[in-house]
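1st attempt posting a full record on here, be nice pls
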Amino acid sequence: MKYRNLLGTGTSVSNLALGAMGFGTETPEADAFAILDRFVEADGNLVDTANVYGGGASEEVIGRWFASRPADVTDRVVLATKARFGTGPDVNDVGLSRRNLDRALTASLRRLGREKVDLYQLHGWDALTPIEETLRYLDDAVRAGKVNYIGLSNFTGWQMQLALSTAKALGLQVPVTLQPQYSLVSREIEFEIVPAALHNNIALLPWSPLAAGFLSGKYQKGQTAASDTRAGAGSPMNGYIFGDLASKDRNWATLDAVRSIANKLGATPSQVAYSWVANRPGVTAPIMGAKTLTQLESNLAAADLLLDDESSKLLDDVSAPMPDEYPYGPFGVKQRLRYVDSSDQGIGELY
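the predicted structure (as C-alpha coordinates):
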Protein backbone atom coordinates (compact mmCIF):
# COMPACT_ATOMS: atom_id res chain seq x y z
CA MET A 1 0.00 0.00 0.00
CA LYS A 2 1.25 3.48 -0.82
CA TYR A 3 0.48 6.64 1.15
CA ARG A 4 -0.51 10.10 0.04
CA ASN A 5 -0.93 13.33 1.91
CA LEU A 6 -4.54 14.27 2.54
CA LEU A 7 -4.25 17.63 0.82
CA GLY A 8 -4.52 20.65 3.04
CA THR A 9 -3.66 18.60 6.12
CA GLY A 10 -0.65 16.91 7.69
CA THR A 11 -2.35 13.49 7.67
CA SER A 12 -1.34 10.67 5.32
CA VAL A 13 -3.80 8.12 3.97
CA SER A 14 -3.51 4.93 1.95
CA ASN A 15 -3.98 5.27 -1.82
CA LEU A 16 -6.96 2.93 -1.60
CA ALA A 17 -9.74 3.60 0.90
CA LEU A 18 -12.03 0.91 2.25
CA GLY A 19 -15.73 1.58 1.72
CA ALA A 20 -17.98 0.06 4.36
CA MET A 21 -21.39 0.71 2.78
CA GLY A 22 -22.45 -2.94 2.86
CA PHE A 23 -21.21 -3.80 6.34
CA GLY A 24 -24.03 -5.26 8.41
CA THR A 25 -26.28 -5.71 5.36
CA GLU A 26 -24.60 -7.22 2.29
CA THR A 27 -21.58 -8.28 4.36
CA PRO A 28 -22.18 -10.12 7.67
CA GLU A 29 -20.39 -8.78 10.72
CA ALA A 30 -17.84 -11.61 10.95
CA ASP A 31 -16.86 -11.09 7.32
CA ALA A 32 -16.71 -7.32 7.80
CA PHE A 33 -14.34 -7.82 10.75
CA ALA A 34 -12.09 -10.03 8.59
CA ILE A 35 -12.09 -7.41 5.83
CA LEU A 36 -11.18 -4.61 8.25
CA ASP A 37 -8.44 -6.77 9.82
CA ARG A 38 -6.91 -7.58 6.44
CA PHE A 39 -7.15 -4.00 5.16
CA VAL A 40 -5.24 -2.65 8.17
CA GLU A 41 -2.78 -5.56 8.00
CA ALA A 42 -2.10 -4.56 4.38
CA ASP A 43 -1.29 -1.03 5.64
CA GLY A 44 -4.58 0.47 4.51
CA ASN A 45 -5.80 3.14 6.89
CA LEU A 46 -8.66 5.20 5.37
CA VAL A 47 -12.07 3.67 6.19
CA ASP A 48 -15.22 5.37 4.89
CA THR A 49 -18.83 4.95 6.01
CA ALA A 50 -21.99 7.07 6.43
CA ASN A 51 -24.83 7.37 8.91
CA VAL A 52 -27.39 6.10 6.38
CA TYR A 53 -25.51 2.97 5.29
CA GLY A 54 -27.70 0.10 6.38
CA GLY A 55 -29.71 2.49 8.52
CA GLY A 56 -26.69 2.89 10.79
CA ALA A 57 -25.65 -0.78 10.67
CA SER A 58 -22.35 -0.01 8.96
CA GLU A 59 -21.27 2.40 11.70
CA GLU A 60 -22.38 -0.06 14.38
CA VAL A 61 -20.29 -2.87 12.86
CA ILE A 62 -17.25 -0.61 12.64
CA GLY A 63 -17.84 0.48 16.23
CA ARG A 64 -17.87 -3.11 17.45
CA TRP A 65 -14.70 -3.82 15.46
CA PHE A 66 -12.99 -0.86 17.14
CA ALA A 67 -14.12 -2.11 20.55
CA SER A 68 -12.83 -5.64 19.92
CA ARG A 69 -9.37 -4.77 18.60
CA PRO A 70 -6.32 -3.43 20.46
CA ALA A 71 -5.59 0.28 20.32
CA ASP A 72 -2.34 -0.20 18.41
CA VAL A 73 -4.46 -1.56 15.53
CA THR A 74 -7.44 0.80 15.64
CA ASP A 75 -5.35 3.94 16.22
CA ARG A 76 -3.95 3.53 12.72
CA VAL A 77 -7.37 4.00 11.13
CA VAL A 78 -8.32 7.35 9.61
CA LEU A 79 -12.08 7.15 10.05
CA ALA A 80 -14.53 9.00 7.81
CA THR A 81 -18.30 9.20 7.95
CA LYS A 82 -21.02 11.36 6.39
CA ALA A 83 -24.42 12.94 7.04
CA ARG A 84 -27.12 14.70 5.02
CA PHE A 85 -29.79 12.20 3.98
CA GLY A 86 -32.89 11.23 5.93
CA THR A 87 -32.60 9.08 9.04
CA GLY A 88 -36.18 9.25 10.30
CA PRO A 89 -39.74 10.31 9.55
CA ASP A 90 -39.52 13.82 10.97
CA VAL A 91 -39.28 16.74 8.58
CA ASN A 92 -36.03 17.82 10.27
CA ASP A 93 -34.35 14.39 10.16
CA VAL A 94 -32.59 15.37 6.93
CA GLY A 95 -30.39 18.08 5.47
CA LEU A 96 -27.39 20.17 6.45
CA SER A 97 -28.99 22.32 9.14
CA ARG A 98 -27.14 22.85 12.41
CA ARG A 99 -29.93 20.92 14.16
CA ASN A 100 -29.76 17.85 11.96
CA LEU A 101 -25.98 17.72 11.68
CA ASP A 102 -25.57 18.00 15.46
CA ARG A 103 -28.00 15.15 16.05
CA ALA A 104 -26.48 13.10 13.23
CA LEU A 105 -22.89 13.51 14.46
CA THR A 106 -23.88 12.64 18.03
CA ALA A 107 -25.61 9.48 16.79
CA SER A 108 -22.68 8.52 14.55
CA LEU A 109 -20.17 8.88 17.38
CA ARG A 110 -22.39 6.74 19.59
CA ARG A 111 -22.67 3.98 16.98
CA LEU A 112 -18.95 4.13 16.24
CA GLY A 113 -18.03 4.16 19.92
CA ARG A 114 -15.65 7.08 19.27
CA GLU A 115 -15.17 10.50 20.78
CA LYS A 116 -14.32 11.96 17.38
CA VAL A 117 -14.09 11.10 13.68
CA ASP A 118 -11.16 12.09 11.52
CA LEU A 119 -13.18 13.21 8.51
CA TYR A 120 -16.81 14.36 8.68
CA GLN A 121 -18.37 14.81 5.24
CA LEU A 122 -21.49 16.46 3.91
CA HIS A 123 -23.11 13.63 1.94
CA GLY A 124 -24.78 15.98 -0.55
CA TRP A 125 -25.89 19.56 -1.20
CA ASP A 126 -28.85 21.02 0.69
CA ALA A 127 -30.67 23.74 -1.22
CA LEU A 128 -32.71 24.81 1.81
CA THR A 129 -29.96 25.41 4.36
CA PRO A 130 -27.70 28.46 4.06
CA ILE A 131 -24.14 27.27 3.52
CA GLU A 132 -23.03 29.66 6.29
CA GLU A 133 -25.14 27.77 8.84
CA THR A 134 -23.67 24.44 7.77
CA LEU A 135 -20.07 25.66 7.79
CA ARG A 136 -20.43 27.35 11.18
CA TYR A 137 -21.70 24.11 12.71
CA LEU A 138 -18.81 22.13 11.19
CA ASP A 139 -16.34 24.69 12.52
CA ASP A 140 -17.89 24.35 15.97
CA ALA A 141 -17.62 20.55 15.75
CA VAL A 142 -13.91 20.80 14.96
CA ARG A 143 -13.32 23.27 17.81
CA ALA A 144 -15.26 20.98 20.18
CA GLY A 145 -12.92 18.09 19.37
CA LYS A 146 -15.57 15.93 17.72
CA VAL A 147 -14.09 16.17 14.21
CA ASN A 148 -10.56 16.59 12.86
CA TYR A 149 -11.30 17.53 9.24
CA ILE A 150 -14.38 18.25 7.16
CA GLY A 151 -15.21 17.22 3.62
CA LEU A 152 -17.87 17.18 0.92
CA SER A 153 -19.55 14.53 -1.21
CA ASN A 154 -21.63 14.74 -4.39
CA PHE A 155 -21.21 18.51 -4.67
CA THR A 156 -21.08 20.08 -8.12
CA GLY A 157 -18.24 22.39 -9.05
CA TRP A 158 -20.06 25.61 -8.15
CA GLN A 159 -21.38 24.15 -4.91
CA MET A 160 -17.91 23.10 -3.85
CA GLN A 161 -16.43 26.48 -4.77
CA LEU A 162 -19.16 28.31 -2.86
CA ALA A 163 -18.53 26.20 0.25
CA LEU A 164 -14.77 26.72 0.06
CA SER A 165 -14.90 30.44 -0.67
CA THR A 166 -17.49 31.05 2.05
CA ALA A 167 -15.47 29.12 4.66
CA LYS A 168 -12.33 31.09 3.79
CA ALA A 169 -14.16 34.44 3.83
CA LEU A 170 -15.67 33.72 7.26
CA GLY A 171 -12.46 32.32 8.73
CA LEU A 172 -14.05 28.92 9.30
CA GLN A 173 -12.74 25.37 8.92
CA VAL A 174 -12.26 24.72 5.20
CA PRO A 175 -13.31 21.39 3.59
CA VAL A 176 -10.31 19.35 2.48
CA THR A 177 -11.92 16.50 0.52
CA LEU A 178 -14.61 15.76 -2.01
CA GLN A 179 -16.20 12.38 -2.73
CA PRO A 180 -17.48 12.31 -6.33
CA GLN A 181 -18.60 9.45 -8.53
CA TYR A 182 -15.65 8.76 -10.84
CA SER A 183 -14.66 5.84 -13.03
CA LEU A 184 -13.70 4.96 -16.58
CA VAL A 185 -17.39 5.06 -17.52
CA SER A 186 -18.27 8.14 -15.48
CA ARG A 187 -15.75 10.89 -16.23
CA GLU A 188 -17.98 13.96 -16.40
CA ILE A 189 -16.43 15.41 -13.22
CA GLU A 190 -13.43 16.26 -15.40
CA PHE A 191 -15.40 19.16 -16.95
CA GLU A 192 -15.76 21.29 -13.80
CA ILE A 193 -15.20 19.40 -10.55
CA VAL A 194 -11.65 18.17 -11.12
CA PRO A 195 -10.37 21.61 -12.23
CA ALA A 196 -12.06 23.20 -9.20
CA ALA A 197 -10.52 20.59 -6.90
CA LEU A 198 -7.05 21.10 -8.38
CA HIS A 199 -7.40 24.89 -8.07
CA ASN A 200 -8.39 24.60 -4.40
CA ASN A 201 -6.01 21.79 -3.42
CA ILE A 202 -8.93 19.47 -2.59
CA ALA A 203 -8.33 15.72 -2.22
CA LEU A 204 -10.67 13.62 -4.36
CA LEU A 205 -11.93 10.35 -2.88
CA PRO A 206 -13.90 8.79 -5.77
CA TRP A 207 -16.78 6.43 -5.09
CA SER A 208 -17.86 3.61 -7.41
CA PRO A 209 -14.50 3.39 -9.23
CA LEU A 210 -15.65 0.05 -10.70
CA ALA A 211 -18.96 1.56 -11.90
CA ALA A 212 -21.17 -0.69 -9.78
CA GLY A 213 -19.01 -3.68 -10.68
CA PHE A 214 -19.26 -3.15 -14.43
CA LEU A 215 -15.49 -2.71 -14.78
CA SER A 216 -14.82 -5.91 -12.87
CA GLY A 217 -15.89 -7.69 -16.05
CA LYS A 218 -18.74 -9.63 -14.49
CA TYR A 219 -21.32 -8.27 -16.95
CA GLN A 220 -21.50 -9.48 -20.55
CA LYS A 221 -22.64 -7.49 -23.57
CA GLY A 222 -26.18 -8.35 -24.61
CA GLN A 223 -27.13 -9.56 -21.16
CA THR A 224 -29.24 -7.75 -18.59
CA ALA A 225 -27.80 -7.13 -15.15
CA ALA A 226 -29.50 -9.21 -12.46
CA SER A 227 -32.05 -7.27 -10.44
CA ASP A 228 -30.18 -7.96 -7.18
CA THR A 229 -26.96 -6.34 -8.41
CA ARG A 230 -26.01 -2.67 -8.09
CA ALA A 231 -26.50 -2.21 -11.84
CA GLY A 232 -29.80 -4.10 -12.03
CA ALA A 233 -33.03 -2.70 -13.40
CA GLY A 234 -34.34 0.09 -11.23
CA SER A 235 -30.92 0.91 -9.81
CA PRO A 236 -29.61 4.43 -10.39
CA MET A 237 -26.41 2.78 -11.63
CA ASN A 238 -28.26 1.00 -14.44
CA GLY A 239 -28.72 4.05 -16.60
CA TYR A 240 -25.16 5.18 -17.04
CA ILE A 241 -23.90 1.65 -17.76
CA PHE A 242 -26.71 0.34 -19.91
CA GLY A 243 -28.10 3.71 -21.02
CA ASP A 244 -28.26 5.36 -24.44
CA LEU A 245 -26.64 3.67 -27.43
CA ALA A 246 -23.63 5.99 -27.67
CA SER A 247 -22.69 5.58 -24.02
CA LYS A 248 -23.31 1.82 -24.14
CA ASP A 249 -20.98 1.42 -27.11
CA ARG A 250 -18.30 3.52 -25.42
CA ASN A 251 -18.66 1.66 -22.12
CA TRP A 252 -18.36 -1.78 -23.68
CA ALA A 253 -15.36 -0.64 -25.73
CA THR A 254 -13.83 0.66 -22.49
CA LEU A 255 -14.40 -2.66 -20.77
CA ASP A 256 -12.79 -4.49 -23.72
CA ALA A 257 -9.73 -2.25 -23.34
CA VAL A 258 -9.61 -2.87 -19.58
CA ARG A 259 -9.74 -6.63 -20.16
CA SER A 260 -7.01 -6.45 -22.81
CA ILE A 261 -4.68 -4.46 -20.55
CA ALA A 262 -5.41 -6.78 -17.63
CA ASN A 263 -4.43 -9.80 -19.75
CA LYS A 264 -1.22 -8.06 -20.86
CA LEU A 265 -0.24 -7.19 -17.28
CA GLY A 266 -1.38 -10.41 -15.65
CA ALA A 267 -3.82 -8.40 -13.57
CA THR A 268 -7.60 -8.41 -13.13
CA PRO A 269 -9.94 -5.90 -14.81
CA SER A 270 -10.79 -4.52 -11.36
CA GLN A 271 -7.13 -3.88 -10.56
CA VAL A 272 -6.67 -2.02 -13.85
CA ALA A 273 -9.78 0.11 -13.29
CA TYR A 274 -8.75 0.96 -9.72
CA SER A 275 -5.23 1.87 -10.81
CA TRP A 276 -6.50 4.19 -13.55
CA VAL A 277 -8.71 6.13 -11.10
CA ALA A 278 -6.15 6.14 -8.29
CA ASN A 279 -3.59 7.88 -10.48
CA ARG A 280 -5.80 10.52 -12.08
CA PRO A 281 -5.06 14.22 -11.39
CA GLY A 282 -6.37 15.30 -8.00
CA VAL A 283 -7.23 11.80 -6.78
CA THR A 284 -5.91 10.81 -3.37
CA ALA A 285 -7.69 7.49 -2.84
CA PRO A 286 -10.58 5.78 -4.62
CA ILE A 287 -13.05 4.09 -2.30
CA MET A 288 -12.78 0.33 -2.68
CA GLY A 289 -15.84 -1.74 -1.91
CA ALA A 290 -15.46 -5.37 -0.90
CA LYS A 291 -18.33 -7.68 -0.02
CA THR A 292 -15.98 -10.56 0.75
CA LEU A 293 -12.42 -11.11 1.92
CA THR A 294 -11.64 -12.72 -1.44
CA GLN A 295 -12.68 -9.55 -3.26
CA LEU A 296 -10.57 -7.44 -0.94
CA GLU A 297 -7.49 -9.63 -1.41
CA SER A 298 -7.75 -9.30 -5.18
CA ASN A 299 -8.35 -5.55 -5.17
CA LEU A 300 -5.54 -4.73 -2.75
CA ALA A 301 -3.01 -5.42 -5.49
CA ALA A 302 -4.26 -2.32 -7.31
CA ALA A 303 -2.51 -0.14 -4.73
CA ASP A 304 0.86 -1.07 -6.23
CA LEU A 305 -0.19 -1.32 -9.88
CA LEU A 306 0.96 1.55 -12.08
CA LEU A 307 -0.19 1.49 -15.69
CA ASP A 308 2.35 2.26 -18.41
CA ASP A 309 1.88 5.28 -20.67
CA GLU A 310 0.53 3.22 -23.56
CA SER A 311 -2.13 1.55 -21.43
CA SER A 312 -3.12 4.81 -19.75
CA LYS A 313 -3.50 6.57 -23.11
CA LEU A 314 -5.60 3.74 -24.51
CA LEU A 315 -7.97 3.95 -21.55
CA ASP A 316 -8.04 7.76 -21.67
CA ASP A 317 -8.96 7.74 -25.35
CA VAL A 318 -11.53 4.95 -25.41
CA SER A 319 -13.40 6.20 -22.34
CA ALA A 320 -13.30 9.93 -23.12
CA PRO A 321 -16.69 11.53 -22.43
CA MET A 322 -18.43 13.02 -25.44
CA PRO A 323 -20.08 16.31 -24.45
CA ASP A 324 -22.31 18.38 -26.70
CA GLU A 325 -20.99 21.54 -28.28
CA TYR A 326 -21.70 23.89 -25.39
CA PRO A 327 -20.42 24.49 -22.81
CA TYR A 328 -18.05 21.51 -22.66
CA GLY A 329 -17.74 20.52 -26.31
CA PRO A 330 -15.36 21.99 -28.93
CA PHE A 331 -17.36 25.19 -29.48
CA GLY A 332 -17.69 25.90 -25.77
CA VAL A 333 -14.01 25.17 -25.15
CA LYS A 334 -13.01 27.74 -27.78
CA GLN A 335 -14.87 30.45 -25.90
CA ARG A 336 -12.46 30.01 -23.00
CA LEU A 337 -9.22 29.98 -25.00
CA ARG A 338 -6.97 33.00 -25.34
CA TYR A 339 -3.93 33.46 -27.53
CA VAL A 340 -1.32 36.16 -27.86
CA ASP A 341 -1.67 36.04 -31.64
CA SER A 342 -5.20 34.89 -32.35
CA SER A 343 -4.62 35.13 -36.10
CA ASP A 344 -2.65 31.91 -35.88
CA GLN A 345 -5.63 30.13 -34.34
CA GLY A 346 -8.29 30.86 -36.95
CA ILE A 347 -10.27 33.38 -34.93
CA GLY A 348 -13.05 33.26 -37.47
CA GLU A 349 -13.78 29.69 -36.42
CA LEU A 350 -14.78 30.88 -32.96
CA TYR A 351 -18.02 32.42 -34.17
